[in-house]
Amino acid sequence: MLIIRLRRTGKKGQPSYRIVVADQRKSVYSPYVEMLGHYDPQTKVIVLNREKAEAWMKKGAKPSNTVAKIFEKQGLKHKSIVIKKFRAVSKKELEAQKAQEEAERAKAQAAKEAAKAAFEQQVEAEKAAQSSSEEKLKEAAEATIKEEKAVVEPKAGAKPSEGEFKEEKAKPESKDKESAEKDKK
To answer: pTM of the full predicted structure?
Structure first.
């Protein structure tokens, strides 16, 4: 990418600058593509070839912040001429920013905790509703089991069927035989 920037020339303590088009990735003192003019900060003399500067900006070259200020003084207008304003921040402003950020963090943390508490309450309510419905189901199941047992079990005083009688008798007899065999030994 091409950039229009200043390149220092002149003696020690007496600077003067060339306004040049160069590759942005290369050093300030590396060879440049084209010289557009020069600037002397001591006498405030600016010599600029406006036609070449406009042509390079149309091709995509962007001026540095200092060169953009020089172009603005010369009355050059183009969309790529953007002046960035830098300003020092005082300690009070820094402290105010930090306090504001901490307040925002505290507010965000409180909101997260409130959301978590609300979610936990919702989960507990769902569990309570689910457990009450489970209890109702258990009660209904127990009631139906009791009804089934009442229908299946014979009434008191009724004779058991032959199959039931034989099963009941068969179990004790087998125990008696085993105990008898133990006694013989």
So the answer is: 0.48
